[in-house]
Amino acid sequence: MVSTTTVIIGGGVTGLSTAYHLARKGFGRIILLEKGPVGDGSSSRAAAIITGLLWSETGVRARKISLQLFRELSEDLDDYHFQSVGCLNLFDPASWPERAALLPLYERCGAPFEVLDVAEMRARWPDLHPADGYIGLYDPLGGYSEPDHYIPALARRCRELGVEIREQQQVQDIVLRGGSVAGVRTAAGTIAADAVVSTVYAWTNLLLERINVRLPVKAFVHQRYVTQPLAAALAIPAVNANPLGGYLRPSNGGRLLVGIESADRAEHRVDAPDFHLSALTAPATLKDQIRVKFTPYVPALGSVGWEIDKVGLLTFAMDGEPIIGPVTQLPGLFVGVAFHSGGFAYNPVSGLLLAEFLADGRTRIDVSAFSPDRFDQLETERYLTETVAQKNVVRRRH
User: Fold this and answer.
1) Which end of the chain is more exposed for a tag (fewer CB within 10 A), N or C?
2) pTM above 0.90, yes or no
3) In this model, does residue 290 exceed pLDDT 80?
């Protein structure tokens, strides 16, 4: 047993996953701090769709592990089951060539896929009506989770493994000693630690700039809606409907979950530690936009009302890739943040990778492309001073 103490800041899925994997490794004392209840931030507002067919080799290899881990977690966590319905990524003729160029990458990485034309998609999923000319990139290993099942199940398992989860404890500062991380400070006092892992997403720079760490991360408002139960449950995969600026998937009780981006909306700057996502709002007209855009593709959507609205924040790095790993300038500090719209999809592997960095000093795959050290600080400062609309960030969906 390693005699070390790790503090994890943030009780969303990335923080919980990191705690879970560290505990599985028997890596000393693990304390997870969350300013509210666990899962109270973006994690509980996620669509939780996953595909392994991403846009970079590092992402594809990481997601391959994540897909395997979701299935293993279905066995290890009580009251959670990964919904392995597959994930259909839709493209129009204009956007398809860019993705088609990545098919050799998927083959090289062993990520299975099928390219489907409209007739094949309509035959396989009669409840879906993709437009003429659309191309489907189907991931047979993809699917989704229900956050309301996954988060409490993962938190419960962490506690069983000995993780100290302290809710309602907001971190006020990270403590340094001799140029290295030495712990954190909360209203209840200082907690000494050998390592600190920050997974606070939209609050990242608000917390880290106090120790002179700045990352090129921006947050954007995103909204998802769940319908009332349909007359009959739809037999469809999770769908990344890229030409429509959104996605959809089945949900509990024969419902349908639909998300849509607000492309013209400017970034949201979190400027207070006690900011809560419940303060966010979405234009009421977005529900009408969903009906207009999505009903031709999913006719059942036109005859059902809405039951649940959830508004949250997505975090994007300047280059659109996640930020995972140690911060070289401050030994003992690790970061897991900026997973575009796929934080939930990444969480099993992002937690595993962070645990490997801490416990083993190396990771099973090369994730240098995700390093916090990859950014030029002058470019970071320029990026952070700009105000960016969502349509102008690197487009990434699940």
Assistant:
1) N
2) yes
3) yes
